[in-house]
Input
Amino acid sequence: MRNPVIRIPYTELFPPPTIIPHTARSLPGAVAALQEFLHAPPPRDLPASTIILTGAGLSVASGLADYRGVNGTYRVNKTYRPIYYHEFLTNHEARKRYWARSFLGWTTLNKASPNAGHYAVRDLGRLGLVSAVITQNVDSFHPRAHPEIPTLELHGYLRSTVCTSCWNEFPRESFQRELARLNPIWDAFLHEAVASGALETEDPDEKRARGIRMNPDGDVELPEAPYTTFRYPACPKCLSSPPYLAEGKAVVEVDDDGAWSPASNAGILKPAVVMFGESIPAKIKEAAEDAIDKAGRVLVLATSLATYSAWRLVKRAKDRGMPIAIVNVGGVRGEDAFFADLRDPQMGSLGVRVEMSTETLLPALLAQLRQPRFQRAESRMADGSSEQSGAAVFKDMLS
Output
């Protein structure tokens, strides 16, 4: 029996947004609305702290592709289909294809750095305006840019691999070295591509001419590439000490070079991300809900909220009566319901919807917030409870 096809939701653009307040159509108006949003007391005795929820659009300025933006992969590469979790677990050839493409994309992804948007989040935290961050991104830019602000990586992270049998994690860098050792021809091709700049060009015509498609999350697509020749290592922990499965002791075998063998029934390494069709771990889901419940406002940055895991958190905030601000270029899933009960004339204290890039808007917002009159207000906020709630927001996440 064939596995059922999992539909990728919301690959087309959402309807354009209604700007709220109407003055937020200009950069100064948007900055003023967000200032009001961040400084007005939350309603119903909610905490004074703000939690930020971010998506792939925030990392576009770092040179990474996104899924659903105006120039996202679902728009410009109509044939793109991500690998599904059940497919990765059960299909050796699918894993070869995945790891070959990831091998080519890791160098560029690993070299990329946080951009002005990530550092603006850091600075909002230093001003006492942000207590925590939830991100859908797997690029690790948030913990790199602001390690002092608690960050919950809702969909995991690419900096590690994890075994699907023993659940031990291993650094992606060491895994990359093993892939290079097992696949010397692919490694030579990668070095040639890096030296030529083929993996770094932003020119879509040049990418097409080179036959390269850059997809999100470090996936590099080479049409007609010999993916079946690619090899990947087994989990070193399971190889040295095979775990016990429901049917008995696991079998983990490798070939003469140390590549995982299809004779195995365990020891498969996957990226430490939530793959398509995979459930978010319960402890991560609960930590995200707890973070929302400990905040008084939610600021949504650079995401269409197409994934249910993110949308449900904003819906939870709405149900709690929390003010919501959304900054995104393009429409957002179900956004009208988030602002349906707003009435003029509110200038941002209860809700904001801005259609501008975070790369432009957030630095401008920080410039205004650093003015002396706002510094005094932020100093008073920092003396309150926001610091305490921020420090405790993920206290039990990994226990």
